Amino acid sequence: MSEANVERLGIFESYLADFARREKHRTAVTYFKMFRLFERWLAERNMKSFDRDDVLAFLEEQDWKASSKNIFLSAIRGWAKFQRGYAEDGATQARLSRIEGIRGYAVKSEGKAALSLEQIGDLMEVMDQDTKILLWTLLWFGFRVGELQLIQRIDWEKGELVVETEKRGGTRTLYFDAYTGEILKAGMERGLLDLPHLAIWRRFRKYSGYCFPLKLTPHICRHTFATHMAEIADRDILREMLGHGPRETTDIYVHPAAERVREVMVERHYLKPFEPQNLEEDVNGTGT
Asked: SS3 for 34?
């Protein structure tokens, strides 16, 4: 079946258009790519519609992790729910309900990958200065990569910034010392914080050989922050720094004092041993 024929199938077009208006663009792009594979699979079998068993058969043939299959199921269940709002006959309603009721795959619980301090040191030695600035910024603040562009204000004198929390909404205040302040200024002056996610990912990918078997990605920096800071900070402080939701409803009324968060980030941060003696020289790239 040709690509043109697959294009004309367009089963998911209306749902994707509606989803893209309401949800995050990146998720919509992921759904689109997965739906395109499924449409091609259907077209190769001359299928104009599908049922629960067809979805499961398609997934059985895909060499995807359980987590990826669950992303697809989230998309297809959302589509089925969307379509049920327009279906008029009982048979179609029943078919869509069967699709909507597909259960997700069990995902093996594993610890999230994180860089060791030794790997961080190796990366600092070999990275070009711009990539090193990005790495340090993500490792220091535990940002999601999209939050680099969501910094709302910075108080250089106090050594604190306010960033919009990407997934949960709201804001959180994070803290930095003099060296990280200079790193942050350099990143902003060079336009590094405005780089798109893919550009940062490509920069990091070049250095994956220095942290094998891990793959160096922007998000592994967040896992690294969480892993090492968990050895320093209690759960409430860690949750505050990461911008996670409360463990339970009563926690909404309990927030760690700002000074406790500041003390952990500025005085006890796991990156402190990597700070150079000559701050100015290193930030400007003449030291490495």
From this structure: helix
Give residue 249's pLDDT. Answer: 30
Q: Right CATH number for 117-283 from 3.20.20.100, 1.10.443.10, 2.60.40.1930, 1.20.1420.30? A: 1.10.443.10
Coil, strand or helix at 279: helix
pLDDT in tens, 84-128: 888 888 999 999 999 999 998 876 655 568 999 999 999 999 999
Classify each residue of 196-231 as buried b or exposed e, where b means 16 or more C-beta atoms within 10 Å of its C-beta. Answer: ebeebeebbeebeebbeebebbbbbbbbbbbbbbee
Tell me: the pLDDT tens digits for 232-259? Answer: 888 888 989 998 865 543 333 345 578 8
Rounded CA separation 191/194 (Å): 6
| Strand, helix or coil for residue 162 | strand
Question: Which pLDDT score, from 0 to 100, does residue 281 have?
Answer: 55
Of 241, 59, 283, 251, which is closest to residue 142 (Cα–Cα)? 241
For 33-51, write each residue's pLDDT tens digit: 999 999 999 999 999 889 9
Crossing angle for the helix pair 197-205 and 218-229, to the nearest 10 degrees: 80
Q: Cα(44)–Cα(82) distance, rounded to whole angstroms?
A: 25
Strands of the sheet containing 171-175, edge to edge, are 151-155, 160-164, 171-175
- The SS3 assignment for 285 reads coil
Contact 51, 76 (CB under 8 A): no
The candidate with the shortest Cα–Cα distance to 20, out of 6, 32, 36, is 32
Q: What is the mean pLDDT of residues 11-17?
A: 83
- One-letter amino acid of 219: H
